[in-house]
Amino acid sequence: MIATLATDSHIIGTSMFRMTRWANDFKFEKDSPIVATWIKLPRLPFYYFTLPYLERTCNYIGKHLRADEKSINLQNLIHARICVDVDVSVPNLDWRITRK
User: CA 41 to CA 35: how far, in whole Å?
Assistant: First the structure.
């Protein structure tokens, strides 16, 4: 199974904030369905820890944004981490990211 690392809202002083993607039609009342998400890909063979392979893998989930440096440099072979833009409004997202 692929684990997703989510980020929460942050508080500075007494104000809460959240970083979101820029949009020309931004509406404060409506959240964007596109979320940058860090995803773990556990138990990959070490020869899959390459940027081209990880980018291709991302295409099944969303748009590739970046890969973790430790993953690319083979410093953490427990799992690869990739950051992907995910459209959370798409129904049945979990079937795309769950390995059976």
Answer: 18
Q: How many residues does the chain have?
A: 100
Please report which helix (H) or strand (E) contains residue 54, including its range: helix 51-58
8 A C-beta contact, residue 63 and residue 85: yes
Predicted model pTM: 0.64
With CA atoms as reference, report the closest residue to 87 among 66, 69, 71, 63.
Answer: 63
What residue has token string 């799992």? 79
Say which DSSP state 59 is in.
T
Q: State the CB neighbour count (10 A cutoff) for residue 79.
A: 17
Per-10-residue mean pLDDT of the chain, 100 residues long, equals 46 68 69 80 88 86 88 89 83 55
DSSP 69: H
